[in-house]
Amino acid sequence: MIKVGVLGAAGRVGSAVAAGVNKADDLELVAEVSAGDSLQVLLDKDVDVIVDFTTPAAVMGNLDFCINNGIHCVVGTTGFDDERYQQVRDWCAANEGVGVLVAPNFAISAVLTMAFARQAAPYFESAEVVEYHHPNKLDAPSGTAVKTAQGIADARREAGLGEMPDATEQALDGSRGANVDGVHVHAVRMQGMVAHEEIVFGTTEQSLTIRQDSYGRESFVPGVLTGVREVASHPGLTIGLDKYLGL
Amino acid sequence: MIKVGVLGAAGRVGSAVAAGVNKADDLELVAEVSAGDSLQVLLDKDVDVIVDFTTPAAVMGNLDFCINNGIHCVVGTTGFDDERYQQVRDWCAANEGVGVLVAPNFAISAVLTMAFARQAAPYFESAEVVEYHHPNKLDAPSGTAVKTAQGIADARREAGLGEMPDATEQALDGSRGANVDGVHVHAVRMQGMVAHEEIVFGTTEQSLTIRQDSYGRESFVPGVLTGVREVASHPGLTIGLDKYLGL
Amino acid sequence: MIKVGVLGAAGRVGSAVAAGVNKADDLELVAEVSAGDSLQVLLDKDVDVIVDFTTPAAVMGNLDFCINNGIHCVVGTTGFDDERYQQVRDWCAANEGVGVLVAPNFAISAVLTMAFARQAAPYFESAEVVEYHHPNKLDAPSGTAVKTAQGIADARREAGLGEMPDATEQALDGSRGANVDGVHVHAVRMQGMVAHEEIVFGTTEQSLTIRQDSYGRESFVPGVLTGVREVASHPGLTIGLDKYLGL
Amino acid sequence: MIKVGVLGAAGRVGSAVAAGVNKADDLELVAEVSAGDSLQVLLDKDVDVIVDFTTPAAVMGNLDFCINNGIHCVVGTTGFDDERYQQVRDWCAANEGVGVLVAPNFAISAVLTMAFARQAAPYFESAEVVEYHHPNKLDAPSGTAVKTAQGIADARREAGLGEMPDATEQALDGSRGANVDGVHVHAVRMQGMVAHEEIVFGTTEQSLTIRQDSYGRESFVPGVLTGVREVASHPGLTIGLDKYLGL
């Protein structure tokens, strides 16, 4: 039984994580910490792993305390840069065996989609990305879609692939999507939808489609729980949940 | 048993139509006519319906002969304009009971897709079109996708719908597709694919997707046979296969 | 501006309808009635249309009052049988011009899917239904999928189509799905999904797919609002939202 | 430039492979061998790699000759059992550096789909397989779908996952598909389709779909060419193309 503490437990994300921990048979929720609470409870309750969905202002103090007290950390808080990563590495170096996972995206279906896209890319002449989101989204395409396209572009370059075949001569402006590093990306905005990404690959008489659908705002929970279960076996700093998925 | 004559029987399309007629239990192929052949065979063989996939130069002569001899006509040949349509109407007026179907697209799944898109459009805040074609296609988006988008735009206008919701503020150029009459259209070019069109509609917590896939170059055959079977019950000129489908 | 009263306003469905009415520019929510409340408020507030999501025990009393006071009715309450329908028809006969819509399903994408499936069925040799639901669902396949399959079967019969082609000789038990009136129906149960239905039609070198996705529990709202807007133009009893959709 | 010989060059598959080699810039087709031809030409032409799509009766003789003459082999011929594999291993042991690839499936999108399905399986509570084929297929589900389901079942077992959630109490016979090692598999038979497989995974508020579409009968060609390019870097016997794809 892994003893879990949630930092930022009063937030929307933190409370969903706490509920997820409560439902899991192999995890025990022993501490919920909100802004202003003392971290001493983590030691009193003998916490094995903390989950941090707090703020860029709070997260480094939390990690300082936890790592130096031998507590593993799973972190979804944003605002990390190279300097912060180096600081975390230094703390880990001084506390052998402590694992820290920092990940920008815990939606396991999205993380797998991105990883599979990189793996598939070398074997297909063509690859394009179509993403679908609710119409209140401010940016197009989504950050995830741009990253996916860049991953495909990298994998193609490493494999020595050239440009994709495209005989288009006459095109309505915008019809062929945005060109991200040679990979075309299309963004659909659709009332009623949440967040969906589809990557299509094509070669001789066949195509491969990898599609990820998020139907709600708690799709990050299974990925966080995977992080909690695996972090002790990955000492030091790990960036990105994909490193835990054996990909 | 309907007796069928095929004009342009030596062409790729005509020969596929002839093969389709041969396979159908309720149709009998009694005449195959190629460029230069006399049309007299149509009378000798007592043809009920001709199918014309010839050339813009030949088609009007064929129709003149057939209509004025009481033979129904199913026409996929291109090059019709208002003047030609009027001429056909005049010939029909002089030959009561003769039916003529001229259609730009006989792929029945594509025709239904377009019709359903118009029917669905008034009930959804959002609608976008994504089409997929082989990478040798010269234009983007496809003519069918543009027409589908225009049909959706018309249906929205008639229903009094305004602009679709879209909060996009930051967009990579082209990511939101081509704007066809207010409907966004995205064109994917993919090795291995043939011709595919997907229309997505969205409203509160739901979406409706209508998708058409063509896997080969004979997808027009079932639509032509439907035309052959129905043309006698639609006297006069009909433009578009959808008029025969009870839509 | 249509003045709307909601009966069953305290229920989950009723309150979602009330919220939907409030958001619509052309509708005004003037009365919310819960179990035990007097219906007099509907007259005091000059209600044009009521929406009834109450109980089988309450609904007939509500309709008696409303129809006989000249108020149009949109009804999602269950428990109607031929006897009840006849009673409603009698009340309508005595109150010319009053419209009543009783519908088992207001999810507009599901209603359109079923209607399009019937329209498409005569033109394809093959048709199968695949539905996807959350794993807590007790029945398989869903009632909607069974009804869709029956609609397809009816349309095929009317068009004189025979059995679908299927050369299967060796099959694992269950692999070909349930046989509903000759139409194969497959039920997938999937954690994270809500309610989704896909109908696939196939003929020579092409397929047509109609897919409906419900992402949440408020997908009935747009259909109810369509009912409210249209009911005054459909005097007498109408059963099924599809009759209002011009299909 | 890799010098390639094709054995079984007169067959449908062999001739498609030959055409594919001819189109590739980095491969040179130097020998085409049909039943009855001498293999001496492979030595005369200094062949680097042979591709064998012949018959179970012919393949072992071909491999004996090629391996013992230092020629790498890519083999799609069927009929291998443990005894044959051991014989190939023995020949390879005696000819260090010679690579032999024997694969039951060269459709690269199908091979990737199966590999991704195994990788994804541990992270989702639910997984089901839906396959679509033309209606002339004799078995249901397809061998590929059964294998995919078994791979998912194995991966779930290794990860310690139990049964999938499924509350179904009332089911029409067959509606939940075939149960392959605990994974439900559904087979659709559809006029116009070729060979398509879809695997759906679900967990909290999200799903992942991996779909493979074969549009024609030459979808094996890119996988064979990948085999030809890689076989020299994989000495000894390799079974299954997936081992070459870095998965």
UniProtKB/TrEMBL annotation, chains A, B, C, D:
Record GO biological process: diaminopimelate biosynthetic process; lysine biosynthetic process via diaminopimelate
InterPro entries the UniProt entry points to: DapB_C, DapB_N, DapB_N_CS, DHDPR_bac, NAD(P)-bd_dom_sf
Pfam families: DapB_C (PF05173), DapB_N (PF01113)
Pathway the protein takes part in: Amino-acid biosynthesis; L-lysine biosynthesis via DAP pathway; (S)-tetrahydrodipicolinate from L-aspartate: step 4/4
Binding positions (NAD(+)): G8, A9, A10, G11, R12, V13, E32, G76, T77, T78, A103, P104, N105, F106
Assembly: Homotetramer.
Function per UniProt: Catalyzes the conversion of 4-hydroxy-tetrahydrodipicolinate (HTPA) to tetrahydrodipicolinate.
Protein name per the record: 4-hydroxy-tetrahydrodipicolinate reductase
Taxonomic source organism: Corynebacterium wankanglinii
Record gene name: dapB
